[in-house]
Amino acid sequence: FSGLTAYALYHYGVVGVVELETANAVTVAAFADLVIALSLVVLWMRQDARERGASVAPYVVLTLALGSVGPLLYLIRRESGVSRRPHPVAAAAR
Fold first, then answer.
1. Residue 80: its pLDDT value, please?
2. For the chain, N or C: smaller number of CB within 10 Å?
3. Is the dihedral of CA 13, 19, 22, 24 positive or negative?
């Protein structure tokens, strides 16, 4: 998917991609659906990172820049066990 994104940006540029995304009602609906879905994923990543005491900022930036690449990398990092220290508030509640 990242390769396809890079290909589109290389051939059409950012402005060209945005023009294609807003070309008709179907592409606008698909783009809006993607924005809504990724917004929900970012909210989940933020909550999950807070509970784990990790930083979500790099993955939010990647999500804004590259779409689903950010959440994918977050899940890979999350499952690898990196930064599994409990959040101070969550630890105190236990």
1. 85
2. C
3. negative
